[in-house]
């Protein structure tokens, strides 16, 4: 591929440390890795033998590492249309069947492929170069992620209390499917990792959890799960495990929370639980948008950071994006009426880059612009970004950390000029090179129409695209085993 030079960057945010911000520096990329960071003159002095195949003039551009969306469901873009139907939002099982399982159960490989592609396009357009994808039909999801060019963490969803029409695996088959995905797709040195993913703690038998933990250990991959996103779920779990000192204490004893665990949301966690998690080395992925719009809560991130937990950032939803999540993260912790408030200006930038990368053990490879790391780089054309005023280079001398504030408070909606993943350009001059954005977006709007029409038809007859196998919040001993096959 030769050497690409991002030349004379007006702003280069190499990482989340204010000392890493520079102006008039250049970044060289050779094949899939970052070769050099410094002035253009230094580049020619250090690499006189290497000719340049591509030069991007960044005199008016902001250059930064691609964002790492630590939690998303790329096929879940249709979720919110189910809010049209009556359900008890505070009751977790009723809520999940209507808003999540139905649109999931409606999917086909064809629609899931198109919707996943559209979500990947949305992510790439808004600066994400790595995305965690908790998904059903993982072979199709892998195909779409691979074709889109994005770097991914594929997390095939496993649960036992319900079965989707679209992906009707029983719990043993779900474990087999995850194992097969790890064996076929897990290759963190390239563009894909596979994580072991149980959907949530109240819709999985303990046997499934145990099997999942074993798989993660056997293949040395991450173990990921939604963890305490809803008040109703936390309260019912506490009740269920009262004899064990409450749900959190039960799961800690079980070994569910370790350094290989990545917990999505953590929005119901209280101080003592946060302190316990800090001692394990587990990471939490903060999803401020879905916390606010779907759960009516907000993770206690300032306290998590104070206690040393690694916090990544996610969007949790195909039509949201990590750039907007950064802005929300900056804002919401100023508002939450808690003892610990306000984050350092660079905290959302860190969470959306190194924080998420570290959660998945990828921080040596991605998350910052450093020689030797993978070339996942984005540029923003400041001539087309009036919303990013008043960023100015003089602040490098006066207060470089203020640059993170100015960027983060206004970055929602920003699209990239260039997006490079693994040394390959996916976008140039604000356009995709190979991906047909209009085709996939139009197809997904059409799928949304069909899905809503079909869901209304189902609801008319009181039916669903999923069926309940056993009640949620059940201990294994209370489940009739024949229903599980
Ligand atoms: Zn989620």
**Corresponding CATH superfamily of the largest domain:** Metal-dependent hydrolases
The percent range for strand residues is 15-25%
- Number-wise, the strands total 22
Low-pLDDT residue intervals, each spanning 5 or more residues: none
CATH class of the largest domain: Alpha Beta
- Tally of individual helices: 16
Q: The CATH topology of the largest domain is what?
A: TIM Barrel
The helix-and-strand class reads: alpha/beta
User: Separation of termini?
Assistant: 51 Å
Which architecture name of the largest domain does CATH use? Alpha-Beta Barrel
How helical, in percent, are the residues? 25-40%
Ligands and ions found: zinc ion
Structural domain tally: 2
Tertiary shape: globular
Overall pLDDT score: 95
Main sheet: strands, sense, barrel: 9 strands, parallel
* C-alpha-based Rg, rounded: 22 Å
Pfam families: Amidohydro_1
InterPro entries: Amidohydro-rel (IPR006680), Metal-dep_hydrolase_composite (IPR011059), Metal_Hydrolase (IPR032466), MTA/SAH_deaminase (IPR050287)
Organism: Hungatella effluvii
Protein name: Cytosine/adenosine deaminase-related metal-dependent hydrolase
Give keywords.
single chain; 485 residues; alpha/beta; Urease, subunit C, domain 1; TIM Barrel; 2 domains; 9-stranded parallel β-sheet; 7-stranded mixed β-sheet; 16 helices; globular; binds zinc ion
